[in-house]
Hints:
The protein is an alpha+beta fold. It is built from three helices and seven strands. Strands 4-5-6-7 form a four-stranded mixed sheet, covered by helices on one side. A hairpin with a 2-residue loop joins strand 1 (about 5-10) and strand 2 (about 10-15).
Amino acid sequence: MKIVVSHKEDMKFEAKTEKSSFIIDCPQISPIEYFLSSIIACSATDMIMIPKNQGKTVTNLSVEGDATRNEDFPRKFNTLHLVYNFDSDADDTMAARFVMASLETYCSTINTIRDSVKISYTIIHNGKTIRENESMISGGGVKIDMGGIESCPQ
Length: 154
């Protein structure tokens, strides 16, 4: 994977990927907000694709992320709490497995930061809280076999 970021003007930058490009407009959206958005988007794509692979459908998906950071530099993330809110035609156990497969195996961004950030999550499935303030176990992640899944090209 290769990305080139070039200064355009003022505090605007263009990020060019192998497939496309986009403008980073600081301070409208800070790089750390882009970073957190990318972490959430990675898991959100899993939350559509993993159920699809299982013959299930997720609708009304929103994933909220709340991160705390160091007060002094480096202002890295210390904690990240994710709230998964979605409806699906799966039972609660399978819905929780969708989230866990994303967190533990498929989401590269979460698995990139998991050794240095305390990550917790809440799952609201079909309007009912089925997991609340659960903590991820730190470490390198585990392979959860949910079968092959389609995903955003890496």
